[in-house]
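Bumping with the actual sequence this time:
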Amino acid sequence: MTGPEHVCDSLLSGGGGIARTFPVEYLITFFRPTVDLTPGAGDTEPKHPKGGVGMSVQWRPRHILRAFAAPLVTAALAGAPGAAAASAANCQIWTGVPPPSPGGVENVLEGVAALSPCNVWTVGNYTDVVDGPVLSLAEHWNGTAWKVVPTPSPDTDRNFLSGVSGTSASDVWAVGETGSNSFIMHWAGTKWTQAASPSPGSDFNDLSGVDAVSATDAWAVGQFSVGTGAMPLVLHWDGAQWVQAAAPAPGSSSVLAGVAAISASNAWAVGSLSASSGPKTLIEHWNGTKWARVASPNPAGPVSEIGLNAVAATSASNVWAVGTYATATKDKTLVEHWNGHTWKLVPSPNPGAFSFLNSVAATSASNAWAVGTQIIGTSEKTIILHWNGSTWKQIPSPNPGQTSELAGVAATSATSVWAVGDYKDGGPSQALATHCC
C-alpha cells in the first residue's frame, strides 16, 4: 500500500489541486492542566493561569493532564513503523513522520486541519527556555515531511494557538490568545499574518475553535472575562473583518469551546455553563440570523464538572459533540449526537479512571473519530475512538512517551485520519502527529 507521500505524489503528478473535504474538524479545548488523582476532584491552578474564570472547568487549551505526573510508567503501545493499509472499519495502525519540536522546554500541538492528503496544518505552542515566553507554533505537512512555518508571537509572555481551519491552500485561519487578547492569524499562501480581532474582556479573551465555510464566511469561538466570570466570545469573518456576534450567555459563567459550520445559515458551537444547580453542557446554533441556545442533555446523577470540547458536522442531521464529565468516582468521556431534531447522549468507552475527549472529526454518518487522553493507575495514555455507524469503539493508539496525549483530529476521508498532541519521555515534551491511512 502506498504511504501518504506517494499518495501526494500521484495527486500532484495528476495535476490535482487542493480540495477541502467537508467537514474538517480539529478543535481542541478542554483544559485540565493539573488533576487531583482523587476521582471527581477539582482542578488545581494551571501552569499558565487565567484569572477570573469562576467555573469548575478551566478552558485554556493546553496540556490535558501534564502536572499530575507522579512516576509514570512506560506506555504500553508504541506506534507502528512505516505506512500501513487500513479501511474505514479497520483503521487501527497509526504511524507517521515525527513533526519538529522547536522548543527546548515544551512543544504542544493543539489543533489540526487537513485540506488534502498533501496539505495538512497543525498549530500549538512551544517554550524554548525555562520560564521563557510561550510562543505560537504552526507546522505544515506537504506529503513528505512536517516543517515549522514562522508565525507571529505578539505578546512577550503568552502566545497560544488552539484551533485551525481552512478552505483552500491560500485561505487558512488559526486562533488562540496572545497575552490577554484574542489571537487570529491568516495564511494567504505565503506567510502567516495576524488579523485584527475584537477583545471585549478586560482580563482575558481566549479563542479555542475556528471553522471556515468560505473565504468570506468563518466563525471563531471562545470566552472573554466579565467580572469574575466568563461569557462566550463569538467572532465572525465577513470577508473584510472579524466582528463580534451576539450569543446567549446562560448561567453565572458560560464559555464556548468548539464550532462547526455547515453553511452560511447553519453552524453549531459547544461548551459549558456554570449555574446554581451545577455545571451543564451548552450548545448553541446559528440559523443565518442569530445564535440561539439549543437544549442539550447532561448525564444522570451528580456531576462536579462537565464540558463539551469540540463539534463536527457532516450534514444538517449528523452533528457530533464530545467532551468530558466528572462523577464522584471517575471522569468519563462524553459524546452527544444531533439527528436533525434533538441532541442525545451516545454511549462511549471509558478505558481509564480519568478519560477525556478533546476533539472530534466526521466524514459521514458511519465514520467519525474522537481523540483524547486516559489515566490508568499512574499512566497517561492516548485515546482514539471510532464510530462505525452503530457504536463507538476504542482502537489501539500510539504512545511514544511515558506520557502521551492527543488533542486534535482531522480527516480527509474515511481512510485518511490525522491526530496531533504531544508526549514526554524524561525530557522536554515533544510534538506528536500520527496518521492512519
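The C-alpha cells above came from a reply further down the thread. The chain has a mean pLDDT of 83.
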